[in-house]
Amino acid sequence: MDKSLLAWYGGTFDPIHFGHIKPVEALAQRVGLKKVVIMPNNVPPHRPQPKANSAQRKAMIEAAIQGNPLFELDDRELQREMPSWTADTMETLRAEQGATQPLGFIIGQDSLLTFQTWHRYADILACCHLLVCRRPGYALTMPDARQQRWLEQHLATDIAELHSQPAGKIFLAETPLLNISATVIRQRLEQGQPCDDLVPAPVMAYITHHGLYRQ
């Protein structure tokens, strides 16, 4: 049985864009990921509700990853009416995959800096490794000495640890710094400005066809 690292990547993806895709492709190459499962959430607990509905965001992700063997889509959180807590989802995935399968959860550096405010954050790390992509404009050290010690206690210095241990490590990946945000994309689309340099062409075609983010 293949026990190499499996990774999930959550978010609202409203819409999915190159800032989501390209750093994760670089991360996958860096750590030897064969598969990244994109898992859009339905009701994010920490942020405003998405502009595009669940079916639209799912369709845009499918358009973005079509023909890319690295990615697949897990739409389980889109089926939920209640808020999606990462801790609950990762515990479910751990139960599905078994106790010894190495699991990863991909986040950005911005999320790492606030990770200890997340609901049951210690339980998340008990279920999986954190695979962290760099984000432009965010510090590479934690907000205070206590959190920095916590980070250093869990840091993976050897990629092999991510594949040999089921959970508990944090890997800081050198990934492309792409200053792209879904907020800026939505603002540009509202103003009728082009976003072809920010969004994959099939996603842009879907947005145009359905008139998304126009107001």
Automatic annotation (TrEMBL):
PANTHER family: NICOTINATE-NUCLEOTIDE ADENYLYLTRANSFERASE-RELATED, PHOSPHOPANTETHEINE ADENYLYLTRANSFERASE
Residue ranges annotated for the Cytidyltransferase-like domain, each copy included: 8-188
Lineage: superkingdom: Bacteria
Biological role stated in the UniProt entry: Catalyzes the reversible adenylation of nicotinate mononucleotide (NaMN) to nicotinic acid adenine dinucleotide (NaAD).
Gene Ontology molecular functions: ATP binding; nicotinate-nucleotide adenylyltransferase activity
Gene3D superfamilies: HUPs
Keywords: ATP-binding, NAD, Nucleotide-binding, Nucleotidyltransferase, Pyridine nucleotide biosynthesis, Transferase
Name of protein: Probable nicotinate-nucleotide adenylyltransferase
Top-level EC class: transferase
An individual GO BP term: NAD+ biosynthetic process
Organism expressing this protein natively: Atlantibacter hermannii NBRC 105704
Keyword RNA-binding: no
Classification of source organism: Bacteria, Pseudomonadati, Pseudomonadota, Gammaproteobacteria, Enterobacterales
NCBIfam families reported for this sequence: cyt_tran_rel, nicotinate (nicotinamide) nucleotide adenylyltransferase, PRK00071.1-1, PRK00071.1-3
Record-stated family: Belongs to the NadD family.
Annotated gene: nadD
HAMAP family: NaMN_adenylyltr
Coiled-coil regions listed: none
